[in-house]
Design goal:
The chain is an alpha/beta fold. A three-stranded parallel beta sheet has the order 4-5-6. The chain has a two-stranded parallel sheet with strand order 1-7. A two-stranded antiparallel ribbon has the order 2-3. Helix 2 links the parallel strand 4 and strand 5. The longest helix has 14 residues. The radius of gyration is 16 Å and the shape is globular. The two termini are about 15 Å apart.
């Protein structure tokens, strides 16, 4: 297992920090995993339509099945030319799926 981090961008006016490059990093990892042929299934949990091109690239590479997960009340990903299974999670589902392990204590290496 690997954990990938991206630094937050902080603003001089004190407004909330923002993440940069997360959706691109997720899209690249999704495409890499789905094209690898190692996995039977890759699941993308997001409602960010910026990730739809990564799903659409799967049309040309049929090695791995893909599914998506979305949250109640949010739009699901809807890639052009694809019908994919989508699971809808409620807030209770989300809370039950949280991974509360402290990874800093098990020696995983940080990847940037």
């Amino acid at each position: 297992m690997s954990i990938y981090h991206r630094d937050l961008k902080y603003f001089p006016d004190g407004s909330a920090p923002s993440e940069k490059g997360i959706d691109v990093m997720i899209a690249l990892k999704f495409v890499e995993l789905s094209r690898s042929g190692i996995y039977d299934l890759v699941i993308l949990a997001s409602h960010d339509s910026d990730l739809e091109p990564a799903l659409e690239s799967k049309i040309k590479h049929e090695r791995t099945s893909i599914e998506t997960v979305s949250w109640t009340g949010r739009n699901r990903l809807n890639p052009q030319g694809m019908k994919i299974w989508n699971t809808v999670m409620t807030y209770a589902d989300f809370r039950e799926s949280l991974d509360t392990r402290d990874y800093s204590k098990i020696g995983l290496k940080r990847k940037n």
